[in-house]
Amino acid sequence: MTRHSPTPTRGALADGREILLFDLPGAPQPVLGVDHRSLAPRPAEPVTTVRRDPQTGDRVIIAPARQDRTYKPVKSMCPLCPDPEGLSSEVPVEDYRVAVFENRFPSLAGTAAPGPGPVDALRTETAGVGRCEVVCFTSDHDGAFARLPHEHARLVLDVWAHRTAELLARPEVEEVYCFENRGEEIGVTLPHPHGQIYAFPYRTPRTESIVARAEDFREREGGDLFEAILAAEVADGTRLLIRTEHTTAFVPYAAKWPVEVHVYPNRHVRNLSELTEAEADDLAAVYLALLRAFDALYDAPLPYIASWHQYRPDAEEGYLHAELFSIRRSADKLKYLAGTESGRDAFVTDKTPEAIADGLRAVIE
């Protein structure tokens, strides 16, 4: 049986953007205050565009207004901290557990039709429809996902599931991507613990590539690619990190990054909203254990990206899983994407996946 979805408190910010507050089951409903900031109303139509690269077919979002987004504010002016006065923050409340709101500087927004189509064979541009949301994991400015209690981390997973189901129901949305960037080395400009959700009007290049590989595998081998990967890693065991009743975590066979872990539910589901209560509980526990291991690896907060792969419930190919990876290759060195990686998507790694697994197993609680 799938689990019950949390019911948010919904409201609007000064410019009309939606905000949602989530709390633990049985807790009093959060009380949303009034946003008193003087903000111009958000545009009714999309303000970004999507252009197609004629060489690769990849889509590129053109969003010049994002140049003005908030950049490393002092703690007292953090837009993600609770502000009961409603004067400086995106979250006009006394306190909150998890808050979600539409990004003030979105890459994608609006529900207008995609646009007139190609200008010519080389130039294709459509409206940047879709939605971008910010997910504040906690009101604690100095906190971290890894330090959340289990029930709080489970709530975040439930929030991701809630938003995934609701956003996939929008006719203009093709893919929902939940992710977290952590650390200045990754490019984070707001240290308050948070992630983002992008609701794309198209399938992203990474998803297109993965689905194409899955289709090819099914045609050649007669089975599901993701199930085969999971079974092979469990049978091999060399790179296995955690294996529980409902969840498996392992370092992938061809890891690109100095630290990289993939996390699969043991049952084949397409997205977070399809997990049962027990599966969601277990996934939250494994996810926390891995993030804590990341921080223990070099005895310091590890910069990382947590990337959730999700698919529509009716997708012919796809398997929910998370990919966690870091650019830190040693305690005092970072891996930069240089010529081969940035110029050719040809990754070179300094560590064997087996060595990565050995290091993480040594620090997993």
TrEMBL record:
Broadest EC class assigned to this enzyme: transferase
Organism: Tsukamurella pulmonis
PROSITE patterns, A to Z: GAL_P_UDP_TRANSF_I
Record bears the keyword Metal-binding: yes
Cofactor binding mode and count: Binds 1 zinc ion per subunit.
GO biological process terms on file: galactose catabolic process via UDP-galactose, Leloir pathway
Domain Galactose-1-phosphate uridyl transferase N-terminal residues, every copy: 67-201
Full protein name: Galactose-1-phosphate uridylyltransferase
UniProt keyword terms in alphabetical order: Carbohydrate metabolism, Galactose metabolism, Metal-binding, Nucleotidyltransferase, Transferase, Zinc
Gene Ontology CC terms: cytoplasm
Limits of the Galactose-1-phosphate uridyl transferase C-terminal domain: 216-320
MF terms (GO), sorted A to Z: UDP-glucose:hexose-1-phosphate uridylyltransferase activity; zinc ion binding
Transmembrane segments: none
Family the entry assigns: Belongs to the galactose-1-phosphate uridylyltransferase type 1 family.
Entry keyword Metal-binding: yes
E.C. numbers: 2.7.7.12
Cofactor(s) of this protein: Zn(2+)
Regions annotated as coiled coil: none
Record lineage: Bacteria, Bacillati, Actinomycetota, Actinomycetes, Mycobacteriales
Catalytic activity: alpha-D-galactose 1-phosphate + UDP-alpha-D-glucose = alpha-D-glucose 1-phosphate + UDP-alpha-D-galactose
Top-rank lineage group of the source organism: Bacteria
Pathway the protein takes part in: Carbohydrate metabolism; galactose metabolism
